[in-house]
Amino acid sequence: MTDRYILAIDQGTTSSRCIVFDRRATVVALARAEHPQSYPQPGWVEHDAARVWRDVRKLITRALRDAGLTADKIAAIGIANQRETTVVWERATGRPVAPAIVWQDTRTAPLLDGLDPDVLRERTGLPPATYFSATKVRWLLDSIPGLRSKADRGEVLFGTMDSWLIWNLTGGLHVTDVTNASRTQLMNLATLDWDPVLLEMFAIPRAMLPEIRSSAEVYGTADGLGVPIAAAIGDQQAALFGQTCFEPGDAKCTYGTGGFLLLNTGTTPVRSAHGLITTVGYRIGSQPPVFALEGSIAIAGSLVQWMRDGLGLIGTAAEIETLAATVTDNGGCYIVPAFSGLFAPHWRSDTRGVIVGLTSYVTKAHLARAVLEATAWQTRDVVDAMNADSGLALTTLNVDGGMTADNLLMQIVADVLDVPVARPMVAETVSLGAAYAAGLAVGYWSDPRDLRANRHRAGRWLPTMDPAKRATEHATWRRAIAAAVLFSSP
Amino acid sequence: MPGLIQSIERSSAVLRLLADGPGRLRVKQIADALDLPKSTAQSILRTLTHIGFAEQDPRTARYRLGRALLDLSSTGLDANELRAHTLNWADALASRSGEEVYVGALRAGPAGQGPELLVVHHVFRPDDSAQSMNTGRVLPAHATALGQVLLAYRVAAAEDVLAAGLMAYTRGTVTTRQALTRTLAATRAQGWALSVEEWQAGRAGIAAPVRTFGGLVVGAIGISGPVERLCDTRRQARPALVEHVVAAGRAISRDLSGPQP
Question: Where are the domains of chain B?
Answer without folding.
Answer: 6-71, 79-257
